[in-house]
Amino acid sequence: MTLAPALAPALALVLCATGGTMTALPALAQDGPLRIEITDGVSEPVAMAIPEFHGDAEAASKIRQVVADDLTGTGLFREIPAEAHVASRGSFADAVAYEEWRTINAQALVTAEVTGEGEEISVKFRLFDVFAGQPLGDGMQFVARASDWRRAAHKIADQIYSRLTGEAPYFDSRVAFVQETGPKDARIKRIGVMDYDGANILWMTDSSSLVLAPQFSPDGKKILFTSFDSGFPQIQSLDVASVTAKAVTQGGGSMAFSPRYSPDGRWIVYSLEKSGNTDIWLMDAATGAQRPLTDSPSIETSPSFSPDGKQVVFESDRSGTPQLYVMGLEGGEPTRISFGEGRYGDPAWSPKGDMIAFTKQLGDRFHIGVMRKDGEGEKTLTDSFLDEGPTWAPNGRVIMFTRVTPGGDGQPRLHSVDITGRNMRPMKLDFAASDPSWGPLLP
């Protein structure tokens, strides 16, 4: 088994007064602070200037590029090329020449300085509303290990994204996934963990046995997954820091799969097959005590907790075709929430609690979609030969999923899409991958 190093400690973040002299000018093109309202409609990306960061040239250049990639990757921002810049800054403390940035129609300006000492780097940055002629929020400073420079960049991008959109951040997070190699009928699979943008991949399992459907714990320290070590699907728990796994279910002639933690980490909900019938079960993560949530002759699987931990959404064919149902943890009759044409599966409750993402098969096409938790407002976001397995970003604005290409040589690839249905993008991975699970924001 390939071992991963211990994860990085939390970055230190402080507010700081690092802005130097600000020149307050009257607003030209807006009455209030620059703010992006994310709607379903098509909007022009905000023009942003991100000139070279000051300080250590190599580290500053790398961090600046990740910040720019994070922001432009949302589809909400457009970086103005450096060749178009007419303003120059001698140091991080220099006053902002707003008028010169306005001449190239920059709406926002990011400045930063990166300095290093020993094994640490210090990164400070400021964000400016160019047309209002004022800073947007306080300056901030991050102190991190030099090896964590990418996390420092994601932290800066998260701050900028949140200040300009009002949305919670998501760049400084990780995704668990399954790498797939080999032909379709003999796939070799192993679990990996990567930054949300596909960087810093750590392998969590080797390729000695089939593994499926990793799911992060709420604190990001553990991963539940389905393993075929015993020849039958059983659930294991993997400690991310030590890269050690242990059995959660033991088999005994049954198959256990599709596990997920409750939001407080106390419970594990999963599918258990006994004598040809599959129901939803609930396990106490500390004691292993378990009980069935459903008791039906239908096939019931893919459970997902609501953010308050009081309900579970799952897939069941009790109506004749796979549909989505919601029920409380005390059991009882579940409520069906999907009524559109086609077959529904892979439900995933959003972090905000207001939406449920799902996979939908309609005819010979597959879709990733979202609906409100009561089943109203269904909207499909994608359309392809095979899309499946949605997982939510920590802020509930972006969904990652698996797209499989058709044909005998078809391969699974990870993609992401905004919940508005815009900005669908393939992940920058040079190998086939599936089963993404988006973890929480890193501490």
Structure description:
- Residues 293-305 have a biased composition (Polar residues).
- It is found in: Periplasm.
- Helix content is 9%, strand content 42%.
- With 443 residues, it is mainly beta.
- The strands form seven sheets. Strands 1, 2, 3, 4, 5, 6, 7 and 8 form an eight-stranded mixed sheet that branches. A four-stranded antiparallel sheet has the order 11-10-9-32, with no helix packed on it.
- β24 and β25 form a beta hairpin.
- The chain is elongated, with a radius of gyration of 24 Å.
- State the separation between the terminal residues, measured CA to CA: 27 Å
Report the strand count: 32
Shape descriptor reads elongated
Q: State the low-pLDDT regions, or none.
A: 1-10, 13-31
Radius of gyration over all CA atoms, rounded: 24 Å
Number of helices: 3
Question: Sheet bearing the most strands, described?
Answer: 8 strands, mixed
Rounded mean pLDDT is 90
Helix content: under 10%
Output the structural class: mainly beta
InterPro entries: 6-blade_b-propeller_TolB-like (IPR011042), Tol-Pal_TolB (IPR014167), TolB_N (IPR007195), WD40 (IPR011659)
Organism: Paracoccus saliphilus
Pfam family, one: PD40
Subcellular location: Periplasm
